[in-house]
Specification:
The chain has about 350 residues and is α+β, with helices and mostly antiparallel strands. It has helices at about 1-20, 30-35, 45-50, 105-115, 125-135, 195-215, 220-225, 250-260, 270-285, 290-305, 335-345; strands at about 60-75, 85-95, 145-155, 165-175, 180-195, 235-245, 315-320, 330-335. The model is unreliable at about 15-20 (pLDDT under 50).
Length: about 350
């Protein structure tokens, strides 16, 4: 009965093939295409372990891995050592792949992630432990890991006295080298507001000329103008500060203090008074996008001059979404600390 059904199927396939279907059974053998000539090893691991097989076109891949993996992890709080938090992180893990290996073992990466999901350690220890174990499971000597997640930081900056939140993105980038050395960068991405100084200066000029026309003296106008928050257009921006911690003594609090001192980080504004004070702060700073980046460089040098390794890489990315122009503005600064310090000292 089974053989008769098979013969009927084969005959129909031959007819289909003659009519132009190149995928007919008579001319198409999927097993031969997959280089399966018999079933001798069908129950052996090698039959199903396709990632470990030799690829059709051998070629060394320098970087291959998983991205966009949302994963809940328990770690020590970024700013409070005695507190454990659970966050949903976006994790990326990369390895190199030999020319004679077809693919990574995805399930082994998942196994490593589950192993440290509830570690409760600091972020650096978590990432280092995870990439080391994942590399061991992949039979690799090195690897890279990226961890990003949102963090709501409670702050007490509002004039109303009400506690609020700043929403920061915490960044961690680690690289396990073949000599088992672990190099890593800490980063924070913070939203902020800037106020363009150009229209503000026009407002000051208009105010001056009007009072001058009314007969006020320069010193009187100056006294009056010094108490006015002259308006201008404001923009939302995003600033990223990443620091390579070669001395193993930089923390996220260091990065936050640099960003907080330099920029007007956006936060929950819980009353009209809070909004006014926040806008006034931005008006006083009157930062271009370019100013914000330069100010961050100087604050990095001022705060970390005696703490950071000279060869540590500093990365600053500032992008402003212009509210009255059809473009964004962006500044990128990527250099090691020694070069940055030398440039500033020559200019001052």
């Amino acid at each position: 009965m089974v053989r008769r059904i098979f013969n009927n199927l084969r005959n129909k396939t031959k007819q289909t093939t003659r009519s132009g279907n190149i995928y007919g059974l008579a001319d198409f053998n999927i097993l031969k295409i997959k280089n399966i000539n018999d079933f001798k090893n069908i129950n052996e691991k090698s039959f199903v372990d396709i990632p470990a097989s030799i690829p059709k076109n051998p070629f060394y891949l320098e970087k291959v891995g998983v991205t966009n993996r949302k994963h809940k992890i328990k770690i020590r709080d970024i700013f409070e050592d005695n507190k454990i938090i659970e966050v949903e992180a976006d994790i990326k893990i990369f390895f190199d792949l030999p020319e004679n290996q077809r693919g990574l073992h995805m399930s082994r990466i998942e196994k490593a992630m589950q192993e440290f999901q509830n570690a409760g350690t600091d972020l650096k220890t978590y990432a280092q432990s995870l990439i080391k174990y994942a590399a061991e499971l992949q039979n690799r000597k090195g690897g890279e890991i990226e961890v990003e997640f949102n963090y709501e930081k409670t702050i007490n900056k509002n004039s109303s006295g009400r506690l609020a939140h700043e929403i920061l993105k915490i960044l961690f980038y680690g690289k396990l080298k073949e000599d088992n050395k672990f190099i890593y960068k800490l980063g924070i991405k913070a939203p902020f507001m800037n106020a363009c100084p150009c229209p503000q200066r026009w407002a000051i000029r208009e105010f001056y000329n009007k009072l001058k026309e009314l007969g006020f003296k320069n010193e009187e106008i100056y006294e009056l103008a010094s108490h006015i928050s002259f308006g201008t257009h404001t923009n939302l921006g995003e600033a990223t500060l990443c620091i390579e911690d070669l001395n193993n003594n930089i923390n996220y609090q260091d990065l936050y203090e640099i960003l907080d001192e330099t920029l007007s980080i956006t936060r929950e504004l819980l009353s009209g008074q809070d909004e006014f004070e926040f806008i006034k702060e931005a008006l006083i700073k009157e930062q271009f996008c370019e100013d914000a980046a330069r100010d961050l460089v100087y604050t990095v040098v001022k705060n970390l001059k005696n703490k950071i390794h000279p060869e540590s890489l500093i990365e600053i990315y500032v992008e402003v979404n212009e509210s009255i122009h059809f473009h964004n503005l962006r500044v990128e600064i990527v250099d090691n600390f020694k070069h940055i310090l030398d440039k500033i000292e020559k200019l001052n």
